[in-house]
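Problem 12. The chain below contains 214 residues. Write out its predicted structure in token notation.
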Amino acid sequence: MAIMQDIIDYIIENRVSSTEVADCLGKSGVLENANAVNRGIFRVGPVRWIYGYNNSNWSVHEQARDVKRDEIVLIELFNCGDRASIGELVSKFIILYRRAAAIVSSQKLRDGNDLIKNNYPVWCNGFTPIGTFNIKNEEPLDAEILADRKAKYDGAIAVCDDSGVVIIPPDKVTPEFLQKLHDIEEQEDIWFDLLDRKKWDTFDIVCLKKYKNK
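Solution.
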């Protein structure tokens, strides 16, 4: 989809932060508990949702083979308690060999020391040494969950930086949203110029917006 690539390109070229993207979404869109493992990394790309369930990461390994270059891989677990979905091995496969842009998860990962040492572009909810099992589930994941996540993430865009991860939902991947990104970048330029060059206070800039009366 051309508009998806246009939005991704604009965010990357202008380094539009997750904070600004969330503002364009009406201060929403955050992927809860997905925190940057390594600092100073900025990644944007289409979402590739993959999942594990019932204390097994078999399906994560299986689906990881289909990851495409520059995708943001969003890993979700169901009925796995506080176990980690993946560690260094799968992260290396996804990042280096499948050439994904990043891995994001609201759950824990393993091998934190190696993910940090290798400066992998990973966002997660902390670490644990306890992982899931490499056992194939006999029953598929619930069809309602699959349908819900497909609607939520197919055609979505993830923006990842030190503040966290924001998901632009498929219904917002539009020319109108791209214009919102242009508008917020222009607003940021104006606000910081008023602060840094004209020494206005933030109440006049943000709350009263006195520059609009000039």
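Discussion. Strands lie at 35-36, 43-53, 72-78, 102-105, 122-124, 157-161, 164-168. Students who got a different answer should revisit the alignment rule from Section 12.3.
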